[in-house]
Amino acid sequence: MLQRLFIFLLLFLILPDIYLYLRFIVRLTAKRWLRILYWIPSVLILAGLVYLVFFANNPFSESHTRDIGWFSVFFFLFAAPKLLLAVCTVIGIPFHKWLRVPRTPFICTGLTLAVICIIMILYGSFIGRSRFEVKEVTYSSPRLPQAFDGYRIVQLSDLHIGSWIGNAPDIEKMVNLVNAQQPDLIVFTGDLVNHRAKELDGFQEILARLKAKDGVYSILGNHDYGPYFRWKSKQEQDDNLIDLEQRQVAMGWKLLNNSHSILIQGNDSIALIGVENEGEPPFSQHGDLAGAKAGTDGMFQILLSHNPTHWRREVLPKSDVDLMLAGHTHAMQLQFGNYSPSVYVYPEWGGMYLEGTRGLYVNVGIGYVGLPFRFGAWPEITVLTLRR
User: Fold this and answer.
1) pLDDT tens sequence across 307-331
2) What parts of the sequence cross the membrane (predicted)?
3) Nearest-CA neighbor of 144 among 384, 351, 362, 305?
4) Phi/psi of residue 190, each to 5°?
């Protein structure tokens, strides 16, 4: 994956550096040591990038996941502000040349954006990634049985527990926040791990403390199958999935693999349906919606499906599911108000979406992949209240 991105990352790092060096550094100083000093951070970052892309083996990547994540933070901390400054000054060139507009406003704009970018990266990396946000959401449907009016569901998603190694107190904080909501039901919509079940070591007892009246239910996400890890054999990968499923059982979670459970409240009942990951290529497709919901016809149905694209591909046109809960997008871990760049990949990337009375809620996740960073798309604990 990184090898395919290498050229892009190389240009992202080097081109702004070359431009800013020729545009400013050469003109501001004739001292050789200052000019050399300018290049040292970029040379070190480039060396690290080359090593990770071409020389780091699988055991190194697994053992140093956090270090690689922090390297990525520093990569963007140095490269992104320079890119913004370079772009702004380049935009100012034709205005200065043909309209005699001073260069200063463009340089100042570039510097301002660069500073804002630095602040965002630092905040998102050191504070934002563990700034848990409890979101209160209401879903109303005339089909909801009366006894479930006011029923409270906490949804969690995309924990990516391997990214939290060394940060157990943050996961304890999350568990305490969830339990404080006193939910009737807790659901987890996939991507419990990054790659391997053993990432849960040291976290199983913490996650087992999640409590709800009707229990904790979960499904698998694309990462849970381990497709992004270099396994020694297909059998090793299959054994890892079995291990992950057994660990969830040990935590008291009820895994819905293309199956359903009936939730009872008073004299009424609803169906909680869960499918295995059902994504668009290149993401895995293991879902069996028809099989999972067999026997629930006519009931109010809540579907747990990791990938939100499943809603329009199959759920809406081929089923009568009332409400689907999904994750997967992370909102690309970057959000400004109601906007996230993930909208260019996922039309439904975060929040509630409705087609008539049928709904989809996309949770932007708790954890992170790659960058230990979240800005705007804070780690989400969704409290979904059902109403008639």
Assistant:
1) 999 999 999 999 999 999 999 999 9
2) 6-24, 36-56, 68-93, 105-126
3) 384
4) 100, 165
98 Cβ contact partners less than 8 Å away, ≥ 6 residues apart? none
H/E element, 206:
helix 204-207
Query: pTM here?
Result: 0.92
Same domain, residue pair 245 and 376? yes
Contact 326, 305 (CB under 8 A): yes
Hey, how many other C-beta atoms are within 10 angstroms of the C-beta on 282?
Answer: 7
Residue type, 270: I
Provide the sign of the torsion angle of the four alpha carbons 173, 150, 321, 260, taken in this order: positive
Domain match, 98 and 138 both: no
331 and 229 together in one domain: yes
- Total structural domains in the chain? 2
Pair (114, 172) in one structural domain:
no
Instruction: Give the Cα separation of 61 and 63 in Å (integer).
Output: 6
Each residue's pLDDT tens digit, 100-136:
999 999 999 999 999 999 999 999 999 999 999 999 9
Beta-carbon contacts of 134 under 8 Å, excluding residues fewer than 6 positions away, are 177, 181, 381, 383
**N-to-C CA span, the chain:** 47
Length of the chain: 388
